[in-house]
Design goal:
Blueprint (H helix, E strand, L loop, with lengths): L31 H27 L1 H4 L9 H33 L8 H24 L23 H30 L12 H33 L7 H10 L7 H21 L6 H14 L21 H4 L2 H15 L7 H26 L4 H29 L1 H4 L7 H24 L7 H17 L7 H5 L4 H7 L29 H9 L4
Helix pairs in contact: 1-3, 1-4, 1-16, 3-4, 3-5, 3-8, 3-13, 4-5, 5-6, 6-7, 6-8, 6-9, 8-9, 8-11, 8-13, 9-11, 12-13, 12-15, 13-15, 15-16
């Protein structure tokens, strides 16, 4: 048996007698759609809170450390913002989105290992609450994951209780992330519909398979780093105070030294491949090449482990080393495939505008780095500029990609049509990210730092844009109840199986699954019936 064959025992949803579903609550459900939506809400709220904290940190009040919290409040706010945004928010949003959409793309009637998935979701939420409690109750003595150097305790000094609480919450989140990745990975490998071979999977499903693998590898390394940090903090160890300890920190704990730094933007590449194909109403130009490039982009994020902190003085950070720079090559080539596909005609949709913003955010750091090279930015200016680059690449790009994917898959995620508010949301997110990065760019070019307030305003705009992602969920399921797949096909004419299910999708996902003869079964069906694309 080869990996391109149909998995043993796969059957069509149409041939399955669906039992009457018992009434479930959000606390007892094993439905991947409900669990994914729950994780999405948690992630979006966490990012919004992180952005508000970032706004407070960059405000004059935060700069003067005149906060309502205890001594060291400003650094405490910064650490909480990084954790809420990068460690909780982005993983929750992307794992939630993939949990909802990927089984539908595969023609699966359910996700594999539903109890494991439910355990992962509730474990993640519990870990997030524990982390939040740690920051609220007192100031943890590390770990500040945004710092390239660990905060070392004195000889024999032990951390306070909230530090241990913070580490416990982070370990629970890491374990839950790994469990969610396992559930997604097994779903892709075992729950595909009859005829859905691996080579017929949509690009998003392929990047979900690759991303789950990367998350499993990264989660193991991160958990080991957290455990070593716990030993240091709990028993007054000196592991991270030794010479080799800094390298352990930078490759296992530091946010820029782990694959997650770029993974969620790479998942956006896979999502927008499906978005572009859907709204151009035909398969991507050179589809196998686009699929390979998207997968290569995801696996290339493992090169983040080659990060070297000496590169942080480079204005092109966080892609400051040759190994990390390789990540940009398959991503850039995939964008060229999108542009070639859109030349053949397109039906305009808000998600395509998000894709344009995503491309802009990917290109902006390169343009800034080129300008920095022309004017000779170096020293403290380059170090400041890298903060702006990190904001754009690590926060802006994956966040805009997630918002664009949600705008595209709103009928299947929330159960309603894409809202016109999506256009306002795009402006809020794009403008907010640019303003958030502007002060760092300005200082890098030797300009006056009086525009620091722009960063605070930008963070608030991003928070508002993230909150807008929740608006389609308010009453969307009631408005979309009883709609058929014909409604979606009239608006989307999608190529892949998620558009063959009603809106909102029923508990068993599919009543009938069209024949699957390629990676674009609905496109094939329309051609067979003589329906114009």
């Amino acid at each position: 048996m080869t990996i391109t064959e149909t998995r043993p025992g796969a059957v069509s949803a149409a041939s399955i007698a669906q039992p009457q579903a018992a009434r479930e609550t959000v606390f007892s459900t094993g439905d991947h759609k409900q669990l994914g939506r729950l994780l999405l809400v948690v992630g979006l709220l966490s990012i919004a809170v992180g952005c508000v904290l970032a706004a407070l940190y960059q405000s004059p009040v935060g700069a003067e450390r005149a906060t309502a919290w205890t001594d060291g409040g400003s650094s405490r706010i910064s650490s909480a913002a990084v954790t809420a945004t990068f460690v909780i928010g982005l993983p929750a949003v992307w794992l939630g989105l993939l949990a909802v959409v990927v089984p539908l793309q595969l023609g699966a009637t359910r996700a594999s290992l539903p109890r494991l998935q439910a355990t992962a979701v509730w474990g993640f939420i519990t870990g997030a609450l524990v982390v939040a409690a740690a920051y609220v109750f007192d100031r943890p003595i590390g770990p500040h994951l945004g710092s390239s150097l660990p905060l070392v305790t004195g000889e024999g000094e032990r951390a306070n209780d909230v530090t241990l609480l913070l580490l416990a919450g982070l370990m629970l989140i890491t374990i839950s992330t790994a469990l969610a990745a396992v559930s997604l990975l097994v779903t892709v490998l075992t729950q595909r519909a009859e005829g859905m071979t691996l080579l017929r999977m949509p690009v998003l499903s392929w990047t979900a398979l690759a991303g789950s693998t990367v998350l499993l590898l990264s989660a193991g390394a991160f958990f080991s780093g957290l455990f070593l940090t716990y030993l240091d903090r709990r028993y007054g160890g000196e592991l991270f105070g030794q010479r080799g300890g800094f390298r352990v920190w930078q490759h296992q704990m530091w946010q820029l030294g782990r694959p997650e730094a770029f993974l969620y933007a790479a998942l956006g590449i896979g999502a927008f491949c499906d978005v572009v194909a859907t709204h151009s109403r035909r398969p991507l130009v050179a589809f196998p090449v686009a699929r390979g490039l998207a997968i290569a982009t995801v696996f290339a994020t493992l090169l983040a482990w080659a990060a070297n902190t000496s590169a942080l003085s480079s204005p092109v950070a966080p892609l400051g080393t040759p190994a990390q720079g390789l990540i940009a090559i398959p991503a850039g080539l995939t964008v060229l495939v999108w542009l070639a596909s859109l030349r053949r005609g397109v039906k305009l949709h808000p998600s395509l505008l998000f894709a344009a913003g995503f491309i802009l955010l990917l290109a902006l750091p390169g343009l800034v780095a080129g300008a920095a090279a022309l004017v000779g930015v170096e020293g403290e200016g380059a170090e400041s500029m890298r903060n702006g680059q990190i904001t754009v690449l690590m926060l802006g790009a994956p966040l805009l990609a997630a918002a664009g994917a949600l705008a595209h898959w709103t009928p299947k995620v929330w159960g309603g049509r894409t809202s016109p508010v999506s256009l306002l949301q795009l402006l809020l997110l794009l403008g907010g990210i640019v303003l958030l990065a502007a002060p760092a760019y300005a200082i890098g070019f030797g300009m006056d730092d009086d525009i620091a307030i722009a960063g605070s305003l930008g963070a608030l705009l991003v928070a508002a844009g993230v909150a807008a992602s929740l608006l389609p969920a308010l009453g969307a399921r009631k408005a979309g109840a009883g709609r058929s797949d014909d409604d979606d096909q009239g608006e989307y004419r999608g190529l892949t199986l998620e558009w063959a299910t009603p809106t909102p999708p029923p508990a068993h996902n599919f009543d009938v699954i069209p024949p699957i003869r390629s990676a674009h079964p609905l496109h094939d069906e329309r051609n067979t019936q003589g329906v114009p694309a």
